[in-house]
Amino acid sequence: MPEYCDAIVIGGGIFGCYAALYLAGKGARVALLEKEARLFQKASLVNQARLHGGYHYPRSVATAVMSDAHKERFTAEHRRFIHTSFEKYYAIDRYGSFTDAGQFERFCHYLRIPCERVEAHPLFNFHRLEALFRTVEHSFDPVLLAAWYRQRVEAERNIALLLQTQVKTATAQGKEWLVEAQTAQDAHPTLLRAPIVINATYAATNAINQRFGVPALALTHEISEIAFAASPQLRNIGLTVMDGPFGSIMPYGLSGLLSISSVAYTHHAISYDDLPTFDCQRPLSDPRCQPEAPGICTTCPRRPPTNAHKMIAQMRQYLAESVQLQYLFSYFTIKTKLKASYIDDGRPTEIALLREQPHFYCLFAGKVNSIYEIEKML
Ligand SMILES: Cc1cc2nc3c(=O)[nH]c(=O)nc-3n(C[C@H](O)[C@H](O)[C@H](O)COP(=O)(O)OP(=O)(O)OC[C@H]3O[C@@H](n4cnc5c(N)ncnc54)[C@H](O)[C@@H]3O)c2cc1C
Questions:
Q1: Is the CB of 367 under 6 A from ligand 1?
Q2: What CATH number corresponds to the domain at position 147?
Q3: pLDDT for 47-67, tens place per residue?
Q4: Which residue of 262, 286, 302, 304 is most buried, as measured by CB atoms within 10 A?
């Protein structure tokens, strides 16, 4: 007999874990299915750890407002895992920016987020910067967050956590989904039935939507690299250069490391298909990574070679010559975006009820601190 649960959540990143914990906290019995052997192995671990407060989206007021709206609560509820005591600067490149200093200032005033112009700073190169602004932006620690969420999920009696598990078949039967969940080492699938399914698989969103017979989202996918470096001068300083093909260097949570991303070099291969389809997945015989079920890029022997030195060279243009930067290592993962974001570079979190009776929610995450959008949905 299929085992009954009140909801099946697919995907064990921060969004799936938060959804499962939220429902379990309300007394619901939840099955949480995760393809990998551990929770938090993909975008929720491999990101720039920016606790967005709006600054990053001068072309998408909707994303900026959503980020700012959740910042306080996310900070209050994850305080132990957030680096709040570094100086954060935003700057405008003198050449080729989509935003100029005046626009950025007006945008910050419109959002009522602090932004103070700085005329001189010994660590930055003002020949390349049109303007530098002291702002207030924090950094969450993805590694500590991952450990905390894993612990909470494992301790929650209302959550049945199925690791190394994928949906083999899904059938709507009246008001319930009947799901065959296949765990890697098991000979037979586990049968589950539930009135609600929540798809929180980010890069695999469309593969799961297809399996449940609901429409695909218009997405693009990029194999993305976050480089990690150390610098004695920048240990407690972050710089993000806006707005266009620029980059960012900032503390990666409480780790003491700096994460570096660059619009030009972070993204390696791009897939415009519904599913994340890349040359490095060929031949399609490796069950760890396929377009229908993407794998973990950081540990994959076929991932692209690092662009870290290009990223660092780009960021050096904005820094004083005295700043020392030492590259350490990189993480890779698939970054998935809504195709519509091409225009304004927005990253909204979109949650859609794609089928009623039985319910199928598709939860596509833009920013880590927008996990609370889940509560509105449920
Ligand atoms: C390079 C990069 C930089 C970013 N920088 C920031 C930033 O600075 N600040 C910020 O707020 N946000 C940032 N983001 C966005 C943010 O990381 C994501 O929006 C968020 O982590 C998505 O969370 P998630 O739980 O939806 O996805 P994930 O963390 O990717 O979790 C999805 C889970 O689903 C699992 N899964 C996939 N397929 C299946 C299947 N068939 N069955 C079962 N499980 C499956 C995966 O294994 C994975 O564990 C960044 C993203 C990237 C990629």
A1: yes
A2: 3.50.50.60
A3: 999 998 889 888 888 878 877
A4: 262
